[in-house]
């Protein structure tokens, strides 16, 4: 009796168009079909080969036999009192990640994850207390954008205007997949969003920031700074021990020379830690190293850490000091705090694998 060996199906979205053309030719199909299939996958966001109506039934059956589309699914969504929507997305291997829709009067922003968990252990961030399971594929980041765009249209009648890679994980530790996902999101053969509407946030990995410059990226870069002296930053962000502020400043200057993209510094103001006028002075000194602006962010407490948000008057004094020095400052008020969707709170409170 002959034993049947089941060959695992390939994830079709990991193939380039050239690879797909070659595969189709080897299986008796016209290579031009590759362009049609790619349009279904990346422009129309198809999640089933059966949806590809301009392909023959025979071609669809062939694709179904050899490939799969590992689309993410929405396991659960919660809506905040302020309209923010947090979703737990289930991946093909049952891991969960979180993505957030942040509505505002003038914009509709998707906050997407780049890793399952995180390896950087920032002391104030819930994701930092999770184990990093794996990097996300480009298609899994793309899928978050598609799903959150759909939520924006269904709930607010308007599409996404902005995307921030500020969810779970460190994007620059998943460099290749993050850049490929942005390519699919911005390409005319993909979702066609403008790169200037996309911001990638990093905790600060100097050599990868330089690589972004070498690659001439068009999107925006944000650095999670949170302290502008090494002693304090080492305490809350262990990554700083191997990527000092001096090294980061050099990398950011290199990035700016290559791209002419202004940097955004993100700064959470913690109670009695980094909220004095001396801290503001150190931040101002750091902003002079490269054309930049500052987003001051309210802290969102988490169970794992004892940090608290600073008082409103101290936050205002901090921002005022910077403004008086000519720094462009935006104070970002917390959104989605009541559903653990705010900055630093993403941690999959429910057990992974649960629907």
Describe the structure.
The chain has a ten-stranded mixed sheet, covered by helices on one side. It has a two-stranded parallel sheet with strand order 1-2. The chain has helices spanning 17-26, 33-43, 57-66, 138-156, 175-186, 206-214, 230-236, 245-259, 277-287, 312-324, and strands at 10-11, 67-68, 73-79, 85-90, 96-103, 108-111, 115-116, 134-135, 162-165, 198-202, 220-224, 263-268, 292-297, 329-332. It is of the alpha/beta class. It starts with 9 loop residues before the first strand and ends in a 23-residue tail after the last strand. Helix 6 (206-214) runs parallel beside helix 8. The protein is built from ten helices and 14 strands. It folds into two domains: 10-68, DNA polymerase, domain 1 (Orthogonal Bundle); 81-339, Aldolase class I (TIM Barrel, Alpha-Beta Barrel), CATH 3.20.20. Helix content is 33%, strand content 18%. The protein is elongated, with a radius of gyration of 22 Å. The model is unreliable at 341-346 and 349-355 (pLDDT under 50).
């Amino acid at each position: 009796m002959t034993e049947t060996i089941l060959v695992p199906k390939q994830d079709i979205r990991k193939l380039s168009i050239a690879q797909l053309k070659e595969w189709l030719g080897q299986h008796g199909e016209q290579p031009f079909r590759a362009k049609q299939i790619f349009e279904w996958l990346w422009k129309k966001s198809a999640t089933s080969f059966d949806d590809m109506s301009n392909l023959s039934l025979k071609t669809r059956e062939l694709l179904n036999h050899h490939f799969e589309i590992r689309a993410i699914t929405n396991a659960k969504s919660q809506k905040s009192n302020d309209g923010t929507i947090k979703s737990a997305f289930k991946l093909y291997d049952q891991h969960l990640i979180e993505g957030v829709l942040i509505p505002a009067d003038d914009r509709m922003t998707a906050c997407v994850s780049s890793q399952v968990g995180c390896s950087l252990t920032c002391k104030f961030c819930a994701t930092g207390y999770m184990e990093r399971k794996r990097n996300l594929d480009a298609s899994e980041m793309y899928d978050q954008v598609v799903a959150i765009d759909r939520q924006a249209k269904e709930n607010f009648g308007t599409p996404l205007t902005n995307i921030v890679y500020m969810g779970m994980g460190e994007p620059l530790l998943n460099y290749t997949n993050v850049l490929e996902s942005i390519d699919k999101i911005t390409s005319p053969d993909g979702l066609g969003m403008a790169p200037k509407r996309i911001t990638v946030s990093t905790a600060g990995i100097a050599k990868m920031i330089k690589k972004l410059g070498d690659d001439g990226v068009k999107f925006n870069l944000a650095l999670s700074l949170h302290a502008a002296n090494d002693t304090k930053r080492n305490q809350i962000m262990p990554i700083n021990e191997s990527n000092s502020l001096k090294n980061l400043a050099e990398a950011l200057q290199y990035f700016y020379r290559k791209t002419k993209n202004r940097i955004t510094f993100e700064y959470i103001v913690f109670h009695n830690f980094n909220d004095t006028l001396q801290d503001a002075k150190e931040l101002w000194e750091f902003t002079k190293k490269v054309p930049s602006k500052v987003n001051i962010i309210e802290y969102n407490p988490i169970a794992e850490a004892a940090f608290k948000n600073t008082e409103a008057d101290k936050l205002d004094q901090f921002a005022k000091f910077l403004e008086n020095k000519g720094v462009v400052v935006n104070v970002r008020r917390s959104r989605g705090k009541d559903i653990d969707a705010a900055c630093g709170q993403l941690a999959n409170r429910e057990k992974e694998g649960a629907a």
